[in-house]
Design a protein that fits this description.
About 0% of the residues are buried. The protein is elongated. It is mostly helical. The longest helix is centred in the middle third of the chain and has 32 residues. The mean pLDDT is about 80. The N and C termini lie far apart (about 40 Å). Helix content is about 90%, strand content about 0%.
Length: about 90
């Protein structure tokens, strides 16, 4: 049970970071609202941002599901973890 709690806690923390990170889609929504001087523009722009985000998550989930049918999950975890760690380290150093 603790394993599931840890995974959910990590997802919540990453989701919170994603939501407050100014490099994410909401910044573009606010910029559009400022450009058009309209709060409605912000609301209109959030819909395609949310749809695009949902589609990208769907693609990752489907890809991971397909990969698991051909490759055992234990062989996927280490390379994916290494790639994510390297990307994070690159972003930190850069």
């Amino acid at each position: 049970m603790e394993t599931h709690f840890g995974a959910w806690a990590a997802l919540l923390i990453l989701g919170a970071y994603h939501g407050i990170n100014p490099g994410m889609g909401w910044l573009f929504a606010v910029a559009l609202g400022m450009q058009e001087k309209s709060s409605r523009a912000v609301g209109r722009s959030l819909v395609p941002i949310a749809l695009g985000h949902g589609l990208s998550i769907g693609v990752v989930v489907i890809t991971a599901g397909l990969a698991e049918t051909f490759i055992a999950p234990r062989y996927i975890r280490i390379p994916v973890s290494a790639i994510l760690f390297a990307l994070g380290l690159y972003r930190l150093v850069r």
